[in-house]
Amino acid sequence: MTESDDVGQPGEEDGFRSGFVAMFGRPNTGKSTIVNHIIGEKVTITSNKAQTTRHQIRGVLTTPDAQLIFVDTPGVGKPRTALGKKLNSTANKGRGEADVVCFVVDARSGYGRGDEFLAQNLDPENTVVVLNKVDGMKPEAIGKQLELVAPLDCSAYFPVSGFTGAGLTPLVDHLIGRLPVGPRWFPSDSITDVSDSHWVAELVREQLLRTLQQELPHSIATRVTEWRDKHITVEILVERDSQKGIVIGKGGEVLKKVGTNVRRQLAKGYHLELVVNVEANWQHDPAGVERMLTVE
Ligand SMILES: Nc1nc2c(ncn2[C@@H]2O[C@H](COP(=O)(O)OP(=O)(O)O)[C@@H](O)[C@H]2O)c(=O)[nH]1
Ligand SMILES: [Mg+2]
Predict the structure, then answer these.
(1) pLDDT score, position 14
(2) Which residues of 222-259 are buried (b: 16+ CB within 10 A; e: fewer)?
């Protein structure tokens, strides 16, 4: 069977299920980590900084009976910039279009006001509450968090760990059971719809997020400007001239480290060139945000 034959077919058996599962929640609750663990490969970048996920990133899991398309979305928080506003609207769109919504809560930091605020917009009928980061937590502490989310009156609650994978198999089984009967939307061997150039730009941004401190990460955008054979040029955009030096590092050490860590994740033989430029104040300007978030 070729890839294209595989798409849009009802599957070998009747009753093949398929649909979209949105990962929705506050920043840093571990939405992207969970998606990667379920897919079994890294399809979406993660870090301990807010605004790491900036697009709807699809991760596809195909089983003999079902195809789940996980839609990873940006964390929703109080928007302080045009970027924050755009990310919230991307997340809400993903939530609105999904067959099932996984409302991901950080069980370690605890269910809080920010989560409560988001929960107001959830439809309990199609929402599953995912209490993440329970690795290393005492059962009583997990129980307490489950009590706090119980009034949401959602259809199911799953304590999980995106790190260890605990609880993810029952979650996936439950999600499959909730999907409508439908075709394969993606070929069986496809795990994401992210293009190669978007992915390389994301890997560079991930390393910058992991290396740099505080507010600077929000000012950073990345894009591939040239891809010729095995030579890839990635442009790193910052908002001010003064930020360029921080991104480059003393003697270029930050860029060197970023380059090494990204190359490790690419196929052998790729050459990565990193260029730093200024796109003044882009995250405060809706048009700038649109430009910086456009991907091919
Ligand atoms: N201890 C622990 N940390 C986690 C878990 N899942 C994610 N994290 C960490 O939480 C931070 C945010 O993860 P990420 O997936 O980027 O969160 P997102 O913003 O919701 O997509 C990262 O530093 C992760 O390593 C988990 O199950 N347990
Ligand atoms: Mg994320």
Answers:
(1) 74
(2) bbbeeeeeeebbbbbbbbeeebeebbbeeeeebbeebb
Ligand nearest to the CA of 46: 1
Partnered with residue 228 across adjacent β-strands are 231
Domain assignment of residue 261, given as a range: 196-293
Tell me, yes or no, whether 191 lies in a domain. no
Give the tens place of pLDDT for each residue, 231-290: 999 999 999 999 999 999 999 999 999 999 999 999 999 999 999 999 999 999 999 999
Do 50 and 105 belong together in one domain? yes
Q: How far is the CA of 131 from the centre of ligand 2 (A)?
A: 15
Q: Does 185 map to a domain?
A: no
Number of folded domains that form the chain: 2
DSSP state of 281: T
Q: What is the value of pTM for the model shown?
A: 0.95
Distance CA 140, CA 159 (A): 12
Q: What is the pLDDT of residue 6?
A: 62
d(CA 237, CA 226): 15
In whole angstroms, how far apart are CA 214 and each of 77, 207, 256, 293? 17, 14, 20, 21
Domain-ending residue, one of 130, 147, 178 = 178
CATH classification of the domain holding 259:
3.30.300.20
- Whichever domain contains 36, its CATH number is 3.40.50.300
18 CA from centroid of ligand 1 (Å) = 27
Would you state the structure tokens that stand for residue 94, as one six-digit string?
Answer: 């993903």
Q: Residues with beta carbon inside 6 Å of ligand 1?
A: 27-33, 46-48, 52-53, 75, 132-133, 135, 161-163
Could you give the CA distance from residue 91 to residue 73 in angstroms, rounded to a whole number? 5
201 and 140 within one domain: no
Residue count of the chain: 296
- Mode of pairing for the β-strands spanning 221-228 and 231-238: antiparallel
